[in-house]
Please model this.
Amino acid sequence: MGQQDLSASGDGHAPRRRRHHGAEPEGAPYYDGDPYASRETDPYAPRDAERYPGPAGARHDADPYGPNDADRYAPRDADGYPRRDADRYGPYDGDGYAPRDTDPYPPYDAERYAPRDGDDYAADDADRYALRTDGAAPSDDAAPPPAASPGRAGRNLPMAIAVGCGLGAVVLASLLVYRPAFVVLVAIAVGVGLWELVRAIGTRHKVPLIPLVAGGAGMSAMAWFGGAESLVLGLGLTIVVVMAWRLADGPANYLGDMLASVLAAVWVPFLAGFAVLLAVPEDGALRIIVTLALVVLSDTGGYVAGVLFGKHPMAPKVSPKKSWEGMGGSVVACAVGGALMLYFAFDVDWWKGALFGLAITIVATLGDLTESMIKRDLGVKDMSGLIPGHGGLMDRLDSILLAAPTAVVLLTALAPPA
Model:
């Protein structure tokens, strides 16, 4: 059969058949006779704008898929998203959802979210802060809130006084009957305080309790028999043992756990060791009694003045009920008490005794605020519920722990031991 003459074919597939039968060389354009004509060698070459102008009014540049003109598609902003048409979409008014102020998170409304009790260390939870169901701030003619509980910080005041007097009697008996018993009492208090603190910290850190309690008891004994140098040595040994003990739990969060452990070792047993140092001299019982009495005066004077005159919060984010007026009451009570007690107990000038009382007030308040800050950071109200009317033992020791080293230093200078 002879070779077919495909040049006269009238259909649109003639060029393909000619190529297939060898009638045209390679590189010839595809679909010559097709009305949607060929591209060059590359079948996906850019469109020829002169041959195929596209829709009327459309603009084409070097990029065949370039941006369309403004008549068809309005340009977007610089960020690629079209702006809202202010004429069509105005801000919501009172009928819809009114926009917030500049701050999308409005500040805490003290009138709408009122604490249910007067707790100094109130936790920010639903049980303590009630949201008004009507969504409005209370008015002057609104029903009065329930009466506050009689005790400080919403506690049972008679129970707190009774328990406080009982604890004071135990301390006084240990000092007056057999002073080494006071060392044992301090060691027990240190162990309980460490248990409360480690229990509270335990949600975040692994703090070894056993070596801390053993080290705390050792520090109390070393302070009694060896003085301040032995107390510092006991702290160092305790930290070393705690570091070794913690290795068993692996490297995860080791640094954070050790920092928490060092804080516990310094805050509780080391500072409590200064109370033992205070009791070492022959008149040590009197020194302890004066220091504890000034701490109680600071707390009592601050409470009375705060209840009667308190208007200006001292540290609202830490202890909302502490006021500058209450602090003034603490200063006055301790200054007067310090002047009288040091004059009659140690024959110290009254003004030196007043300065001593002022110093005790400052460090006692600082210790109270420090523990409040730690409890808020840990999200707890009290270190425990061990002592009725008081919370935990650490809630009673917070002021004393900083007052003890201050008293050791100042009383050694003002009334040197015989």
Observations:
- The beta strands are 113-115, 129-131, 313-315, 319-323.
- DSSP finds nine helices and four strands in the chain.
- The longest strand covers residues 319-323.
